[in-house]
Amino acid sequence: MNIIPGDGMRKCYFDYVATNPLHPEVLNTMMPYFKEEFGNPLSIYEPGQRAKKAIEEAREQVASMINARPSTIIFTSSGAEANSFALKGMAIAKQNQGNHVIVSRVEHHSILSSARFLEKSGFVVTYLPVDKYGFVDPEAVKDSITKETIVISIIHASSEIGTIEPIKEIAIVAQERNITMHTDAVATTGNIPIDVKDLGVDLLSMAAHQFYGPKGAGALYVKRGVRIVPLICGGIQEGGRRAGTENVPAIVGMGKAAEIAKSGMSRRIEHCKKLRDKIIEGVLKIPNVHLTGHHGNRLPHHASFVVEFIEGEAMLLMLSMKGIYSASGSACTSKALKSSPVLLSIGIPTALAQGSIVFSLGMSNTEEEVDYFLEEFPRIINRLREMSPFMKKKEGGSKCYTGG
Amino acid sequence: MNIIPGDGMRKCYFDYVATNPLHPEVLNTMMPYFKEEFGNPLSIYEPGQRAKKAIEEAREQVASMINARPSTIIFTSSGAEANSFALKGMAIAKQNQGNHVIVSRVEHHSILSSARFLEKSGFVVTYLPVDKYGFVDPEAVKDSITKETIVISIIHASSEIGTIEPIKEIAIVAQERNITMHTDAVATTGNIPIDVKDLGVDLLSMAAHQFYGPKGAGALYVKRGVRIVPLICGGIQEGGRRAGTENVPAIVGMGKAAEIAKSGMSRRIEHCKKLRDKIIEGVLKIPNVHLTGHHGNRLPHHASFVVEFIEGEAMLLMLSMKGIYSASGSACTSKALKSSPVLLSIGIPTALAQGSIVFSLGMSNTEEEVDYFLEEFPRIINRLREMSPFMKKKEGGSKCYTGG
Amino acid sequence: MYSEKVNDHFMNPRNVGEILGADGIGIEGNLACGDVMQISIQVENDKIVDAKFKTFGCGAAIAVSSMITEMVKGKTPADALKISKEDVVQELGGLPPQKMHCSNLGANALRKAVEDYRKKGKVYIA
Amino acid sequence: MYSEKVNDHFMNPRNVGEILGADGIGIEGNLACGDVMQISIQVENDKIVDAKFKTFGCGAAIAVSSMITEMVKGKTPADALKISKEDVVQELGGLPPQKMHCSNLGANALRKAVEDYRKKGKVYIA
Ligand SMILES: Cc1ncc(COP(=O)(O)O)c(C=O)c1O
Ligand SMILES: Cc1ncc(COP(=O)(O)O)c(C=O)c1O
Questions:
Q1: What is the CATH number of domain B24-261?
Q2: Measuring CA to CA, which of B62, C106, D6, D106 is 20 to 30 A from D98?
Q3: Residues of chain D with a CB closer than 8 angstroms to some CB in chain A
Q4: Which CATH number is associated with domain B12-21+264-395?
């Protein structure tokens, strides 16, 4: 299914972790709020109250997707905002009780960077190591807890390696010690079943554009009774916890996307898993290519690899010339020109991390697309390896890859 | 022009300061980004790069509206985010140089509340008083500066009273002393001409939904060379200063709205001013009603009053039953059930502040609407005064109003 | 925001005014909080035969005043005292959370009116 | 992201490979930064008659390698040294800011190849 316009060439969008196309039904639901229903939800006259009602309905839809009460959902503008809000807001709210924060080494930039902000403000942060699959060990969490520990934040699944973390086990550790527990579920929410009561977390971040909802809408779940200091101050929107005129159409869209995600989840998972497994099987037939993250316990729509002797951006570009769109954690693709800390944390050497490539799938993708991709990808790897100064020296075996 | 749907009754939307309807051309410009152009601007393949280009074009449009360079524009999700970002980000960036922050008593909640956050973090904040028109005195700013002063933030115009502050004069004071100067121009940008070079400010907040652009898009102008600490951390979006997947359609819409605002500004001002003056003239014929804010130096689309003996929400409601939509700063309309600090700051007694009512205009409004309103409003005031226990005692003269 | 009943009582308030030579008058509320309610009653043969209000306040305050003056008519002063704020809210089909204090004002103003009436000496102990 | 010229040189790179028995070989870059470039040259009568490259790196690195090996052919080793990174960037129709270091790598690898050739003794001082 061609969701991307162009020159008539086949287009395979394999970068759903970057962002999703909007579900057409979601857009339809949003449209009135770009037109006649433009009222401000704070206004007490009818058009304002209709906007208010629409937001509250969306809140119910989002809450229902994660089995939470509507009043626990705070809408934000993105996953990064939810993460910054969560980590800073929790730490500042509890600063009288301690100054120690625990995160993992496979967190998203928005958590890592917020952690660094907290360090500059006098907090102490532990960055927990992970194993070769990217798993955080709940025992290691337990061992790193001190009397000063107030907050733990562990990602639900990294969009770079796809591994799903044992959040439930870690939340039990946190709960036993009265430590506030947050999980960054931006990559998982709407893609795998999430039940906050079962997970046992106090806070959870999500972003609509990761489940066929609009950009500009995210949310933070905050369990009843958990205190958080606002990031965006002032105003009485979102129960006084997040100021700013609400982005009504985007919120309405997030609600609809949540509803659709909930009802269509098992079908979506099945569809993506089949294609993902086909990609993994096909790609691993190419010599000197390795899966990153865990084989079984990973995002259903996510396949990630490191390819020896060649560099990720070059692969991305050659693939894109063939209409295949993917992502990489190589230094060259990052604007900071540094290898992905997530890849380094799972023990992949810097050189090999350059060969990172990530394929992520969605409802638009078909088996034919995967077949086409599996035909083109080995050729592209070959072409690039022919140009590689390392190829002849190391042919036939990986010398530098020591990961899983 | 009926922009609000309904039962066939005439609808007069007189609450443009709450939010604007989207300009149809703006929506048209946004539409492709809800459909095929859904790429993430960070992605290096074509669809991502097209989104990136669209954002950069919007940045140029917004910059051009305020005579700034594109690289000085940081997109945010709202005016409140821009304000929180500005005040906290500036203060934290300069905390080694001092701990004193100056704001006025007519600031928006998002500034006041951020100021309170800073106070809790050890900063000292001066809340400058204003005169009966709401003007901040540049001399008073000068007098309140100490060796510790690092930041001054004064609103460009309050949406409650409409008075336009002497920002240029205050910025000169700040500049002379190397103090970073911010202005909250959310109510003014796109509505009156703004030239950041002429104003002389270092930072300036704006929100698209105040000039016929979409909700979910705001921006902060940060002069080249001025350091600011991110509010939403992580990621490399917006030059590393604001993380989160960009709300591409909203940003594109803000750009288009800025372009239209710039080219149509004088026509818009003329249209609104005529209606505003008609409203002011007509309403002031009603006994015991007073204009708030300054007569001449006010937002061109803004007319605000206090009405003696009756309460604002009741007026709002009765007006809305007649299809006339407006706002009030009365305690009953605020969810906090407190009178507007802005009204109290200009010397209006609490009781009289209850009678606050604000009408703000836009391109949809017509002379006929104003005529209809001027017919209905005195009747409504009369009906409510008949119910008021204060009416008979004070008939014929204001006993409690001491303002301008 | 408001129920239809509230809107109706706000737009078409019953019993607006002040009873000349009322048997009891009660005033409740203060201007700083935004609402002031005055209820006057006329009592004959231990029955409240008339009740009127004057109210400075929001839509809810006016609707509460209108409703409670309706509810009280025909009741004995003793029964009037039994009208709770919850009764008024229920009769109105509910009020938004931040407006619940208005119902309180209504019940209090009525109570003060009855007390004022009793003080004036026309009391029949029930 | 890249100019058409860059895309062309990336997708259809000229002079890929290694000259067997090259007169000079230069290697520049390191893996941690993401790019390694190897340029080999063949010199006859003080003219670079052939140049080839092998590159591990991004699209810009490959395009720079391809372009610089094209530019150098026919030049004297002395003139080859005069090829600046700016020259390469200009020939490619520009590079994104964060990719400018790739042009540096190319010029350096070429310089090292020429130096290697001179060290080997076939030098004609210009
Ligand atoms: C002066 C001023 N500042 C800030 C804001 C907040 O902007 P937003 O509602 O877009 O967050 C407003 C709201 O209209 C405003 O009038
Ligand atoms: C795990 C994770 N956390 C946070 C984010 C940031 O979300 P957003 O880009 O919506 O700000 C992402 C981005 O996709 C993500 O994958």
A1: 3.40.640.10
A2: B62
A3: 2, 7, 10-11, 13, 16, 27, 31-38, 53-59, 61-62, 98, 101
A4: 3.90.1150.10
b/e map B210-231, b = 16+ CB within 10 Å: bbbbbbbbbbbbbbeebebbbb
Closest-CA residue to A82 (of B220, B111, B77): B77
pLDDT of residue D122: 61
Per DSSP, A23 falls in state P
> Do the two chains C and D touch, given a threshold of 8 Å on CB pairs and at least 3 pairs?
no
What pLDDT shows up at residue D35? 87
DSSP for residue A234: S
DSSP tag of A136: P
Going residue by residue through chain B, which has 404 residues, state the pLDDT in tens, using 9 for 90 and above. 567 776 777 899 999 999 999 999 999 999 999 999 999 999 999 999 999 999 999 999 999 999 999 999 999 999 999 999 999 999 999 999 999 999 999 999 999 999 999 999 999 999 999 999 999 999 999 999 999 999 999 999 999 999 999 999 999 999 999 999 999 999 999 999 999 999 999 999 999 999 999 999 999 999 999 999 999 998 788 989 999 999 999 999 999 999 999 999 999 999 999 999 999 999 999 999 999 999 999 999 999 999 999 999 999 999 999 999 999 987 776 666 678 899 999 999 988 999 999 999 999 999 999 999 999 999 999 999 999 998 765 444 434 333 33
Tokens for A41? 């939800």
- Compute the CA torsion angle A283, A288, A294, A299 (nearest 10 deg): -30
- In the three-class reduction of DSSP (H, G, I as helix; E, B as strand; rest coil), residue D110 is classed as helix
Check D56 against A311: CB less than 8 A apart. yes
Looking at beta carbons, which residues of chain B come within 8 Å of C16? 386-387
First-residue to last-residue Cα distance in chain D: 40
Give the separation between CA B398 and CA A286, rounded to whole angstroms. Answer: 88
Give every CB contact of residue A267 below 8 A, 6+ residues apart in sequence.
none
Question: Ligand 1 mean position to B319 CA, how many Å?
Answer: 24
Q: Which CATH number fits domain D4-119: 3.40.1010.20, 3.40.1280.10, 3.90.1010.10, 3.40.50.1000?
A: 3.90.1010.10
DSSP secondary structure of D34-82: TEEEEEEEEEETTEEEEEEEEEES-HHHHHHHHHHHHHHTTS-HHHHHT
Q: Which of D11, D33, D49, D120 is catalytic?
A: D33
* Interchain pair A311, D35: CB under 8 A: yes
Tell how far the Cα of A347 is from the centroid of ligand 2, in angstroms.
Answer: 23
Locate the domains of chain C by residue range.
Answer: 4-119
| Minimum distance, in Å, between the CA of residue A361 and any CA atom of chain B | 14
Tens-place pLDDT, residues D20-46: 999 999 999 977 667 899 999 999 999
3-state secondary structure (DSSP) of residue A244: coil
Is residue C60 predicted with pLDDT exceeding 70?
Answer: yes
Contact: C58, B311; criterion CB under 8 Å:
yes
For the beta carbon of residue C76, count every other beta carbon within 10 angstroms. Answer: 16
pLDDT in the model for residue A237: 87
DSSP A231: S
For residue B238, how far is the Cα from the chain centroid?
A: 24
A244 lines ligand 1 (CB under 6 A): yes
Assign D27 to helix, strand or coil: strand
ipTM over 0.90: yes
Residue A230 predicted with pLDDT over 90: yes
